[in-house]
Amino acid sequence: MQFDGDVLTIEPEMSMEEIRAFEQFVRPRLEYIETIEIEEALPVRSSALISLLVSLKRTRPEVSIPFIEKGSTTSEGYGTLHWMCHD
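Above: the chain sequence. Below: its structure as tokens.
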């Protein structure tokens, strides 16, 4: 996880413990974050991360999360995953 101005970049291969720690870190700071980006070169390890990102987007709709907004990802193990994201 790294900050670059108002942009927070995270790795998608987080364990559950790392996702919990990320949530505890980001929730109190959400109003200061403009964009949450995910390193797309790596696969998402857990659906919990996707759920957390959707929850953050619903909590603060102004935050940009390109990974969630594009509505799909590709995984070696699962193929292409699609989801619906409504404002």
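The chain has a mean pLDDT of 86.
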